[in-house]
Amino acid sequence: MDLSDGPPRRRKAARAAVRFTAALGRAICARVASGESQMAICAEPGMPSRSTLFHWVRDMPKFAAEFARARVAGGVSRTNGRLSSFSQPVADEIFARLCEGEPLTSICEDPAMPCFSTVYYWRRHFPEFAEAMRIAREIQAERFCDLGWAIAEGITPEAAYASHVKLTQLRWMAGHLAPKRFGRLKPQELDEDWQGGGLTVIVKRYSDGIDPDIGRELAPGESYVLKHTPARRED
Predict the structure, then answer these.
(1) How many CB atoms within 10 Å of residue 141?
(2) Which residues are bridge partners to 211 per DSSP?
(3) 45 pLDDT more than 70
(4) Domain-located, residue 190
(5) pLDDT by residue (tens digit) across 115-139?
């Protein structure tokens, strides 16, 4: 009896080791200083892996100092006492690609782009980037509206159900990305003088007797509205 689980799995070919040289170190630092990500650099043939680069920085003080200066020149700053890899050119590219309708997950899968968690870290700690992301999301919502109109114009009886599914998803995404413009429940702004406490009570007769608020007895089935006006703010 053959108890094998199928053909043996092929192991991924081991990456060739890269030796450190002064010229290679200078080339890496120059690319980091220009704003290029370490992930993109290390993914190229002839470049060290990320773990190898980490060991070089740890074990070679001169290279570590030059590498640190290159990171600062490339947009690395300190936020809350820790290093942040924020890069304005990369942030601008993320903004442009979002405006073109590309999903953020697809952008983060690009080896030259930061990962998903890094993008959200930037949003939490860099207000200008967070505002750019908000604007890009609104532009995405407008693109989804245009796309929905194009789909609606091209609907055929055979593809009616599939088009309905697409339009429903586009409508939900537009409302999620720009709730103030396309959401079903839009946030309401309160009057500056409103202090809360407004109350409307509908009173109906359930027993005999004089009602103290109107000073007489209610007729069978009669009701009235007791309004309470909240106090206004005094300047």
Answers:
(1) 20
(2) 216
(3) yes
(4) no
(5) 888 888 888 888 999 999 888 888 8
pLDDT at 197 over 60: no
72 and 64 in contact (C-beta within 8 Å)?
Answer: no
pTM for this predicted structure:
0.44
Pair of tokens at residue 67:
């590498």
Please name the helix (run of DSSP H) or strand (run of DSSP E) that holds residue 147, with its range, or none.
helix 127-153
Confidence class for position 69, pLDDT limits 50, 70, 90:
confident
Nearest-angstrom CA–CA distance, 55 and 170: 47
Is the pLDDT at 166 greater than 70? The verdict is yes
| Distance separating alpha carbons of residues 119 and 7, to the nearest angstrom | 40
In this model, does residue 17 exceed pLDDT 70?
yes
**Rounded to 5°, angle at Cα 72 from 69 and 77:** 140
β-partners of residue 217 are 210
- 192 in any annotated domain: no
Q: What CATH number does residue 138 fall under?
A: 1.10.10.60
Q: What's the rounded Cα separation, in Å, for the pair 201 and 156?
A: 53
The answer to whether position 159 is within a domain reads yes
Residues of the domain holding 221: 199-228
